[in-house]
Amino acid sequence: MSNISGIVKSARKIMRQDIGTGSDELRILQLGWMLFLKIFSDKDKELELIQEGYKSPIPAELHWDQWAADDEGMTGDELLKFVDQKLFPTLSEIDLSTGNKRAVLVHEVFANNYNYMKSGIHLRQVINKLNEIDFNNSKDKQVFGQIYETFLSELQSAGTLGEFYTPRAITELLAELTDPKPGEKVLDPACGTGGYLTAALEHLKAKATTVAEHEAIQHDVMGWEYKPLPYLMANTNLILHNINLPNIRYGDSLSRPLTEYSQKDRVDVILANPPFGGVVSNNNENNFPQTYRTKESADLFLILMIHLLKKGGRAAIVLPDGSLTGDGVKQRIRQKLLEDCNLHTIIRLPNSVFQPYASVATNLLFFEKGKATKTVWYYQHKLPEGYKAYSKTKTIQLSEFDGVKKWWKKRQQGEQAWKVDIKTIKANGYNLDIKNPKQPEEEKQHTTAELLGMLHKSFAKGDTLLGHLRKELQ
What totals of helices (H) and strands (E) does the chain contain, helices first? Predict the structure, then answer.
């Protein structure tokens, strides 16, 4: 571990000196395409040997080992010119007519990315560092995969790409509690950098007992992503988890009319942290039935996910407090969720889990399609002892969920758990933002509606006092 960790540290140090890769985000993007090409090229060479008739979509002179593998090879301006004027333009215009899916992947990655480094000498130094890692050695690959995961978590504090990363503790918990089985199709329609996909892969790999089951995992775990940078990172992430051809579709999940999906598009399990707080682009809300049209992305994703589940299919997703309450379209969407699915559990998280990218309170929703909800169980996840909030150095850990896992199998009401029947929820306008009845008053987090009510009362009280004061002064 220390050897590879040292190599990576050195590569990052070199990139810090380059004016083109001055931020964490740009350094990981630079590493992203380089790693992608290095590992992809290696795999293609292997496929040409073991698969009869296989031809790599990458032209021979652009394979990593042709231009990058020799430590004494091209450097400086010559290398920079080659990468910027030959490598990127050729791979982004790659021939797609052969129907080779690996060609499509290369095209998507290179048509939407750049070489960010401005010094060919720095670029050569970073390439030489990467050449010290043997990605054909599964142990090296595994260790690098862990380091890459750490990079992705660092993006959360880099800001702009934080929205695409879900803390590992949450992706692993949701994979464990939904428990995908070999042969089931698993989808994340907003897959970001691939956190849920890798959690599902690892979960399924541990359960697979035959070669056929291991093979099936390659295409049974699916993601959709519409931004080029996380798309690149998710593919690299899956390749590091030994997936030869990641099943990730490049494009906006909300851009297809719901009516176009047929039974064969439906899946067994959905794990997702759909984008929230976003405004839907390109009038994509028109792809949804009139009664559910809204500009709020999280709400449309909820409708999409209900639609994409098979009967008996199950989902575990992250939603902000704002999606649990509100009237109009929001209320109708919640009603549909409760009527079409059994929303059996909501785990309420403290509002600093996604800091610093989002400080809103979030919830983990677990539901199964095909039966209406009769009772919703709530579980309040508390901050560890002595924490005021999660932070960059104190992130949420999987071990903190030991309590909820124990409770999951034998449910009882208590300090952290309570249940609410559907009649109460209906009578309350399908509001799902229900506070822990056992929580001390001073700890309670009020809903937006409660806060507005309190503010209103406060203003009214102020007006009354001003009225009395005026009378006394007259």
Answer: 17, 9
